[in-house]
Amino acid sequence: MEEHVLVCENSIDGILTGIYEAYQYKKEHGIESHDWMHLAVKEPEIGRLFTCYTRVDTDAEKAEKVSRTIKRELGEAVFYDLCLAMTSADEQKADAVYHTVVIGLKHHDRDVLARLREPAVQKAFACRRGAGNELHHYREFLRFAELESGILYAKIGARDHILPFLMPHFADRLPADNFVIYDELSGVFGLHPQYRQWYLVSGADFDEESLVFSSAEAVYSELFTRFCKSIAIESRTNPRLQMNMLPLRFRKYMVEFE
Amino acid sequence: MQSERVQDFPAIKGLPLAEEAVPYNRDSGGVETFMKDRQSVMEKLEILSDAAKYDVACTSSGVDRKGNGRDMGNCLAAGICHSFSADGRCISLLKILLSNECIYDCKYCLNRRSNDVPRATFTPDEVCELTMNFYRRNYIEGLFLSSGIVNNPNYTMELIYATLYKLRNVYRFRGYVHVKGIPGADAALIQKTGYLADRMSVNLELPTAEGLSRLAPNKHRKNILTPMRQIQNGIAQGKQELAVYRNAPSFVPAGQSTQMIIGATPESDYQVMAVAQGLYDSFQLKRVFYSAYVGVNDDKALPARGTATPLLREHRLYQADWLLRFYHFRVEELLDEKRPNFNVLLDPKCDWALKHLEQFPVEINRADYHTLLRVPGIGVKSAQRICGARRSGALTFEHLKKLGVVLKRALYFITCSGRMMYRTKLDEDYITRNLLSLHEKLPFDKDGMTYRQLTLFDDSESNVSLFG
C-alpha cells in the first residue's frame, strides 16, 4: 500500500491548511484510512519508497475553516494546546497534530489530549509541553532594555516559535509601553504600540548596532546585577542547581549575566 | 495569530514606533532624582537585600490578576521566577528590607541590635521607583517587603503601609506584593496593609515557643500567632464579601505563609512537621517555608559558626511538606515519637511505602487517584495523566513511561493488568537495596557537602550536644 505525505509550510496556518488538504486528499483519492496519510513541514532529502509527496500552499481561509472546526468540536482549550504544539521545533509536530485532530473528531472527545495511549497524541502532547516550557522560560528570562526613545527592547532566541504566545503576556502587563521583542532565531519581531494591539513583523531591515539605550538603563541594569549578587547566600552556593534552573542558553540575553 | 496576518505595517528602518514613543514617567521626573542619589541607592540596595536574603519565601504564586489595560502589571497564579542566584534559589520578587535599623536582638539574626553592620533605610519613593523600573524590564514579578523593627512595631508597620499605599495608588502598580506582618503591630494597621498586598506572612521564626524565647528574647509566640489569626480571619471574611459584592477589595488574595528556621534549636523533624501541619489545618496557611540555619553570629546559644547548613534535612522537610499539601498524607503516617526524624537515605514517600508494603502492589488500571498518588515514582501530574489516559483502554508499562512515571522507582509497587514489570519480591530489604542503588537525585552534593557532614548535622540529637 502506498503512503501519502502532504508537505506544508512550517507555521500554524500552514499546518492547519495541511489538515484541510489532507481530509480533501483522502476523499478525492478514496484512501481508506488516515493511517496512510501523513503531514510534514519539510520534504525529506531522500524520499521513501512507495511514498507520494504533495506540496500544500498555505491558505488563510482553509486554515480558518479548520480552526473553527477544532474550536467547535474539541473546544478552545484543545485549540490553544494544539497551536502551541504547532510552534514546536520538532518536525513531527504537523503529523502529530493532524492525527490528534483525527482521533478527537472521531471520538468527539473534548479531552483528546488525555488519550496518551495513542502515539500521535503522545507526540502532540510532548510538542505542546516542550513549547509551553519554552514559552514559560521566556516569560521568566526575557529582559527589556530601555532605548533613548523610551521604547523597551528585548532580544530572545526561542527554540520553538513561541513569540505569538509571548506577546499577549507582555501586552497585558505593559499596556502603556511601546515595546519590541526580537526573536533572532526566527528573525521575527513582535511589536506593541502603547494601548494598541500588538503585531508580528518578519524580514525587517534592522541594525541592532544602531540602538541607543537610555541613560537610566545602565543604572537599573547595574542595580539589578548587584541585587542578584547580594541576594545569594554564600554558604549555599550551588552552581549545578543554578544551571538546572537557568540553563546557559538563556543567559546570553540576560543583563545580570553579562 | 490573527495579528500574524497584519499586512500593512510600516517598513522598518530602525524601529517603527519611534515617533509614538512616550518616555516612561516623564512628568514625575522620578528617574532624574533617582540618578542623583545613584550611589546611595546602590549601596542601600546592597545592604537591604543582603539583610533580607535569609527570608526564604520568594514565590509570586497564588493569584491571577489580569492587566487593566492602563496600569502596569498583572499576576499569574502559577507565579514566575525571573532569575536564579548563585545558590540556585529563585529570584522572583525584589526582596528587600525597608530598613535594617532594628531595635530587637534576636540571636540568630544578622541585623540584631548588637551587631556592628552597615545600616540603611529606604524612602517609600526609592522602593517604588526600584519596583516599577525592575518590573518594567521584566527583572522581577513584584515586591517582597520586610523590615527590621524601627522604633516600635506600629511605627514599622505604618512605614510599610505608607510604602505600599504609594506603590499601589500613586505608582499604580498591579504586580505581586508580598509583605511582612509585623508581630505586635495594631490590628487596624495589619488590616489596611492586607488590602494592598497579595500575600502576607508572619514568621514563626522557630518551631517551638521555647526555642523562640531562647533565641529571640524580644519576640513572643502569642504576638506572632495573633496577626496570623487575624490575617486568616480577614481572608475568610474577604472571600465572603467577594462572593456577595463582586468588586469588594480583596484582602491578601494569594494567602498567608510563614517560615521557621531549622537546625538552630534541637527540635525533631516530627515536631517541625507537626507544627507545619497544625498551621495548615488551623491557620489555613498557603505555605510553610523551612530555612536551614546559616550561622552568621557567634553566640553561645547557637551552633558554632561554620557549622554546615543542614541542606539535606531542609530538603526532606520540603518533600514531606509536599506530601502534606498535594498527596494527602498526614504527619502521623510519616513520623512518630519512636521514629521522630526522616530517613536520610530515602525520600519520605519511598520510606513510607516500604513500611506499608501490605498496601502494594497497586493495579494501575483500577486504583483510584488517591491510591496512585501514594506510589513512589508517581507524582500529581502522572497520576492525573493515568486517570485520563486509561479511560480509553488499558495502560501498559510502555504507556506509563510516556506518561512520565518514574518506572525504576514505581516498578516494585505496581501492576499493569495484573502483571508486574519484572519478577520482583515484595520484600522490604530487597526493595530498599534496589532503591538505594538508584542514587536519589538531590539538588546538592558534589559541592563540598559530604555524607558524613550531612548525617552529623542533620541529626537533632547531635545538635543537642552542640548546645551543651
Strand arrangement across the biggest beta sheet of chain B: 3-4-5-6-7-8
Specify the CATH homologous superfamily of the largest domain in chain B.
Aldolase class I
The CATH first-level class of the largest domain in chain B comes to: Alpha Beta
The CATH topology of the largest domain in chain B corresponds to TIM Barrel
Structural class of chain B, by secondary structure, is alpha/beta
Rg on CA atoms of chain B, Å: 25 Å
As an assembly, this protein is heterodimer
Characterize the largest beta sheet of chain B: strand count, sense, and whether it forms a barrel. 6 strands, parallel
Mean pLDDT of chain B: 86
Q: Your description of this structure?
A:
- The complex is a heterodimer of chains A (258) and B (468).
- Chain A is an alpha/beta fold and 258 residues long.
- Chain A folds into two domains: 3-134, no CATH class; 142-257, no CATH class.
- Chain A is built from nine helices and eight strands.
- Chain A has helices spanning 12-28, 60-74, 76-86, 93-107, 119-141, 163-173, 215-230, 239-245, 248-251, and strands spanning 3-7, 37-40, 51-55, 145-146, 152-156, 179-183, 188-192, 199-202.
- Chain A has a five-stranded mixed sheet with strand order 4-5-6-7-8. Chain A has a three-stranded parallel sheet with strand order 2-1-3.
- In chain A, strand 4 (145-146) and strand 5 form a beta hairpin.
- In chain A, helix 2 crosses helix 3 (76-86) and helix 3 packs across helix 5.
- Chain A is elongated and about 65 Å long.
- Chain B is an alpha/beta fold.
- Chain B has two domains: 38-334, TIM Barrel, CATH 3.20.20.70; 348-439, no CATH class.
- Chain B is 39% helix and 8% strand.
- A six-stranded parallel sheet of chain B has the order 3-4-5-6-7-8.
- In chain B, helix 3 packs across helix 4, helix 5 (187-194) crosses helix 7 and helix 8 (269-283) packs parallel to helix 9.
- Mean pLDDT of chain B is 86; it is low at 1-33 and 446-468.
- Chains A and B meet through helix 5, strand 4, strand 5, helix 6 and strand 8 of A and helix 1, helix 2, strand 1, strand 2 and helix 3 of B.
